Amino acid sequence: MTVNISLPEGQNLIRKLAAKSDVLVENYKVGGMKKYGLDYENLKSDFPDLIYCSITGFGQTGPKSHRPGYDFMIQAMGGIMSVTGEPDGSPMKVGVGIADVMCGMYAAISILAAIRHREQGGKGQHIDLALLDSQAAWLINSGLNYLTSRQDQHRMGNAHPNVVPYQVYQTSDSFFVLAIGNDTQFRKFCEFAEAPEMADDLRFKTNADRVRNRDVLAELINDLTKRNTKKYWLQELEKLQVPCGPVNTIKEVFDDPQIQHREMEITMPHHISGNGQVSLIGSPIKMTETPVSYRNAPPTLGQHTDVILEELLGISETERIDLAEKGVI
Prior knowledge:
By secondary structure, this protein is an alpha/beta fold.
């Protein structure tokens, strides 16, 4: 639905909806909701059970809290760009808006935790989430590598800082990924690649050895993998349970029989589509007792305004027409 919260009538509609809601999520700049009387402090006394989640670039506190935040700049400020890209290239952002997405994931987890707290006898609460905080949190092994060693990680292309061989390798016709996670898998690969001596080479015998000598090993493996096609390596290494995979395009992802079997592409009725159907990405969540159900396609702006106001708040058609004429909805 659409509501003009700059008008008193719009603010009143939001308060009425808050009275019937479990969760309110907002992503205005810090202080943006306060000028409309819709910030957490203004709502919590009337709605003590409301879970109020604020998502901003830098959080509600701190020296940068006043600044707006966008995915690209957060990827840059949050360190992920410094470790993404080729060693001699420029810093590179991730190909999707991952800082936004991950902050949304943390928001979902936080909201579920707050609901659980309330169910156990607690009250509602304010959740303060920052894009920059969540970006720092999912630096994961790169972040912990720094915190434990105080050594900055630099761009390594497709290589892994702690596991070798774990990167893209060239074949006679394309590229593929090797993701060898232990010494047994490395030995299997060496034997299949007709280079069994590499598994016993003191430079490569353990993962720690391979990490220290990654550049030499990468060159040797590339020399081996360039002798055969991508299809050859993928088919044969899979039989040996040596982790590997193709570098798929987006089209190839959705053409993958595993993705299709898992119903990661779905279709739903939608009135704006020429054929009455719209293709969407399915949910990755598979639950035995409460499987995901798809009830509504993504709505158009304001598509359900009348339904929400009538069914949830009991606002009549006459009142809705009046609100529309005033520019409230």
